[in-house]
Specification:
458 residues; alpha/beta; seven-stranded parallel beta sheet; two-stranded parallel ribbon; 15 strands; 42% helix; transmembrane helix; transmembrane; membrane
């Protein structure tokens, strides 16, 4: 029977023989080795499981969903990625889509959010004039993805390849920049809408802040560095009461989380311009509408509900104040966006290091003629030949602002920007598209399934 070893060894000699200590040492050695092997096996299993569940792995695997369970809690559901991600056939489609046919002044552009409303129009316009264009979109379900798929089909018919992927997927972005020496990035991917931020705030941080950083990181590491044009928003003016809104006005009082993320994006753009020499242009869009528009925008859901015989709610401010927006037709927005690309100077960084001062610009792109929501409804009634059932309600505290009004004198001077589509003409074109796209063969104008929503200041 072993004798207890004292807590203060060395005060007296042990009377145990040397071979006894050898047995103890061997017993300890094999016990420790056994424990070490067990924990090593457990650690290996844990690491293997984490490796399989890694978002980076799943984002680069063509057979898996891009979003991990953590990502799904903070963002919207997205489609699974196309089979053959990164294979030779996929790479060929990317290169073919990026091929420039307009010489000698053509550009090669990566358009994020290419299956979105503004993104699809801008992408098509670039392709039509002979530029190389590759699209990127995650086809999330913020609104009916079938509308995005229809836009994708139109772009595919024009020869544009829209890659299915997320802007937060670093390996995918690096792969695209490895395949194509993009001269420009038109970054339009974002989580839009003012009201939805109250339901899913995480999606705005994920897309509008982290997503922007992901795109800028890929761009600053590319060689050569592309020039960046990206979508900010008129929402950054927030509670500003100076009219019309000018780029020189303060934008430090956002009224919504959406606005705050766009303001944060402008500050982040300044940092990447300052440190890495990226040429960056921020575009503050004012309430864009037109054919192929978003279902959460006023003219869209007003049209849908008027045709369905539903009562529409028209917001009013304090003391029955009128709500007005600087509605801007999509073709005018596209003209300003392409002019921004054409006048963007080259980035000055090399190998991720700034070599000299780089261009940094901010422009308003609006129509300059605010129209009340009441007048918007009246115009829709005339084009639809249907009387709306109206209900006036107080504007809820959801981040919407009472009015927007753009001063575009800077864009006129620097970009040659001239909006020339009034609301009467623009809504006529929108209604024509809506009836053609949503009217079933029976002729009754019952809209396809889509997400209902509220107005947005974007």
């Amino acid at each position: 029977m072993d004798v207890d070893i004292p807590s203060s060894p060395g005060k007296f000699k042990s009377e145990k023989p040397h071979h006894h200590y050898l047995r103890l040492l061997l017993r300890w050695h094999y016990s420790s080795l056994h424990k070490f092997l067990c924990w090593t096996i457990v650690a290996a299993i844990v690491l293997f499981v984490l490796f399989l569940a890694s978002p980076n792995l799943s984002s680069s695997s063509p057979a898996s969903l891009h979003s991990s369970s953590i990502t799904e809690r903070r963002s919207l559901r997205t489609s699974s990625y196309s089979a053959g991600w990164g294979d030779p056939a996929w790479e060929k489609r990317v290169r073919d889509s990026a091929r420039i046919r307009r010489r000698p002044f053509g550009i090669s552009v990566l358009v994020t959010g290419a299956a979105g409303f503004i993104g699809s129009h801008a992408t098509n316009a670039l392709k039509r004039r002979g530029d190389g264009v590759v699209g990127l979109d995650n086809f999330n379900d913020y609104y009916d993805p079938s509308l995005k798929r229809a836009r994708q089909a139109l772009l595919s018919h024009s020869g544009v390849f829209v890659v299915e992927g997320d802007i937060n997927d670093g390996p995918l972005l690096r792969k695209l920049f490895d395949l194509v020496a993009f001269t420009h990035v038109l970054h339009l991917a974002a989580q839009a809408g003012v009201r939805y931020a109250m339901k899913n705030p995480g999606s705005y941080i994920h897309s509008n802040v982290a997503g922007l950083v992901s795109v800028l990181e890929a761009a600053r590491s590319a060689n050569p560095q592309p020039a960046i044009v990206w979508a900010s928003s008129s929402s950054v003016y927030g509670l500003n009461t100076e009219v019309p809104f000018s780029e020189s006005h303060r934008t430090d009082s956002p009224a919504s989380l959406y606005a705050a993320t766009k303001k944060a994006g402008e500050e982040i753009a300044h940092v990447y311009n300052h440190i890495y020499g990226l040429s960056i242009t921020s575009l503050r869009f004012f309430t864009v509408y037109g054919p192929w528009g978003r279902p959460d925008m006023a003219c869209f859901f007003f049209t849908r509900d008027i045709l369905a015989g539903k009562t529409i709610s028209i917001f009013q401010g304090p003391d029955d104040a009128t709500v007005a927006r600087d509605f801007t037709y999509i073709d005018d927005i596209v003209q300003g966006s392409l002019a921004s690309l054409d006048t963007a100077q080259k980035s000055t960084g090399s190998g991720g290091t700034k070599q000299g001062p780089a261009q940094l610009r901010v422009f308003n792109l609006g129509n300059t003629s605010p129209v009340s929501v009441v007048e918007l409804v009246s115009i829709l009634e005339r084009h639809l030949k249907v009387k709306a059932k109206r209900k006036f309600v107080k504007m809820p505290r959801n981040g919407d602002v009472l009015f927007t009004h753009a001063n575009v004198s800077l864009a006129k001077k620097e970009l040659g920007y001239h909006p020339n589509t009034n609301l009467q003409t623009g809504l006529k074109r929108f209604v024509k598209w809506y009836l053609e796209y949503y009217a079933p063969p029976s002729g009754s104008y019952l809209p396809k399934k889509g997400r209902s929503g509220g107005s947005s200041s974007s």
